[in-house]
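re: ur question from earlier - yeah i can do the single chain one, its not a big deal. heres the input i used so u can compare w yours
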Amino acid sequence: MRLLIVKLSALGDIIQTLPSLTLIKTNFPDFQIDWVVDERNVEIIENHPYIDRLLIFSKKILFSIRKFKKFLEELRKCEYEAVIDYQGLLKSGIIVRFSKAKYKIGFSNYKEGSTLFYNILLPPYDLNLHATKRYLFLTKEVLKILNINKSFEISSKIPHSVFSKQILETRLNFINRPYIVFIPSARWKTKWWPLSYWEALIDESKKIAKDFDILITGSSSELELKKWAKKMDEKYSYIYSLVGKLSLKELASLIKNSCAIVSVDTGPMHIASAFQKPIVALFGPTSPERTGPWDGKFKIIKSSSFCSPCFKKKCKEWKCMKEIKPEEVKKALYELLNYSL
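and the output i got, formated as tokens:
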């Protein structure tokens, strides 16, 4: 049997879909599974042992007849018993529509008209269900539709996320000491914890700096973060800026070999959860019940602001993240590392 997964982005969502891939492949090793992914996130799942064929998509394809036709030719080379839309947006719906599949499956409360492209609509999903569990629920419903009579329970136990050997075996040779990773930024600016708070946390981390370096990560496109991280690198002997210096594979490797993570709600935080790393996760405009860490040892610090979570990408006041104080984050980090304050 051959299945097609459509999950284009974002990085964190792709990581949260990996347990569903594990569920299918470990229970049905003979299944062939293809995956359509956005070109920005290819590195995280290329050469994955459970994926037979990776199809790469980009926004450019939608605006070029020649590129779209070429993509469709590749997409339609295989016939599928089912295509599963884990994305639920217009672009994923279009891919589902043009795939050669007997069953085209998604939730009825998906967005942007994507539901028009399915021939099987599942009942609306619970908006407050954690994304990883939502994807697992979708997977189990698909298996029922395929008349696979195997019992699956939605429980607190989530299947282990599998990564490619290339990610697992990557080594960062410039690292000399045990380290902690700080992840200050996300695509939504509202998820950022103020950089002045990060600096206060760094300054308060002198005690653990005797045993750990602190590495700051982020995208090269985040110029404000890049400038600030460089300043921290120059000011503190135990701080190293890796902002804009790592590939996606290297970032995953960095997180895999870390001793702890402090992060806002972003893709690398989900990589840390998949690797069961100790995490201090900071939440303001989003909900940890929906997109928080799901595996390993973690502490969630959530804003007590009345408007949190609002799920807004823009905010003039930015109250929620400012309400999370450095002392609170320091306490959580020290507890994870078994340090006394």
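The domain at 2-151 is CATH 3.40.50.2000 (Rossmann fold). not sure if urs matches, ping me
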